[in-house]
Design goal:
267 residues, alpha/beta, Rossmann fold, ten-stranded mixed sheet, 8 helices, globular, binds adenosine-5'-triphosphate, binds magnesium ion
């Protein structure tokens, strides 16, 4: 579904030159939930923006279902890192969720239906008439998720969507993402700097190096499909996987060369 080949991004301007992403190659299969994890500032947002066609790569290409991405493609939706800046404060929740649908050729009643359905999916059926600033942070982030869902994307890109909410809300939202992913069969690329979150959510974890970024390792998460916050997080296998990813990230921060292993760590 997603094919990222030799992606490189160098920012230039104002006398500064930053090589954020050096050389990234990976694929995501249709219907897969893949987590990208890497140290802070390693270029995760840059990578997602290139994948979503919001930034032009310096080199390399991204393909969505075989078509080259050279602008925001119709089948993709984005949930940004800062929910506070991603909703329009002068529009009600329902209008925020409906906005991207206006680009699609849909009847008004179908739009209404999609908005109501998406808000119900994230447990906010009653909030359509509220303004975003009347809601808590966690609720605002659920609105952003509903907006992405209503659009019925093939691919959902999520950039540290829960970094700014409290731990309890975060756990609920993680379960929400897994439930929606399983129900709707969408392809999800989820970026986080949180190792436990990556292992808890993903079917596969791609570990990135420090900037300039390359893929350090790809890891299959061989935990059962049924996950829950209590039992999964105390499972011995969960501990093994998170320890392994943690060691990889520490090594990445020290600048050790990448090891490309595409197999799970030994049991
Ligand atoms: N618009 C920009 N212009 C110039 N440099 C940029 C720009 N955006 C990001 N950078 C630089 O690119 C590098 C990667 O930034 P990016 O935001 O992609 O990292 P990140 O992994 O998402 O960070 P965080 O974990 O803090 O979200 C950083 O060195 C940053 O300073
Ligand atoms: Mg970022």
């Amino acid at each position: 579904m997603l094919d990222v080949r030799g992606l490189r991004k160098v920012y230039e301007g104002s006398g500064r030159r930053t090589e954020a992403v050096r050389d990234l190659t990976f694929t995501v299969a249709a219907g897969e939930l893949v987590c990208l994890v890497g140290p802070s500032g390693c270029g995760k947002t840059t990578l997602l923006k290139c994948v979503g066609g919001l930034l032009e790569p310096t080199a390399g290409e991204v393909f969505l279902a075989g078509r080259k991405v050279d602008g925001p493609p119709p089948g993709m939706a984005f949930v940004f890192q800062e929910y506070g800046r991603s909703l329009f404060p002068w529009m009600r929740v329902g209008q925020n969720v409906e906005l991207p649908l206006k680009q699609k050729d849909l009847s008004r009643s179908r739009r209404r239906e999609l908005v109501a359905d998406a808000l119900a999916s994230v447990g906010l059926a009653d909030a359509a008439g509220a303004y975003p600033w009347q809601l808590s942070g966690g609720m605002q982030q659920r609105v952003a998720i509903a907006r992405a869902l209503a659009y019925e994307p093939e691919v959902l890109l999520m950039d540290e969507p829960f970094a700014a909410v409290d731990a309890q809300t975060r756990a609920d939202l993680e379960d929400l993402v897994r439930r929606l992913w399983r129900e709707r069969g969408i392809t999800v690329l989820f970026v986080t700097h949180d190792i436990d979150e990556a292992v808890y959510l993903g079917e596969r974890v791609i570990v990135l190096s420090a900037s300039p970024t390359v893929v350090r390792e790809q890891l299959k998460v061989d935990l059962p499909d049924e996950r829950d916050q209590l039992t999964t997080r105390v499972a011995p296998r969960f501990a093994e996987l998170r320890t392994h990813v943690y060691e990889q990230i520490q090594a990445a921060k020290r600048g050790a060369g990448p090891v490309r292993k595409d197999t799970p760590p030994p049991r």
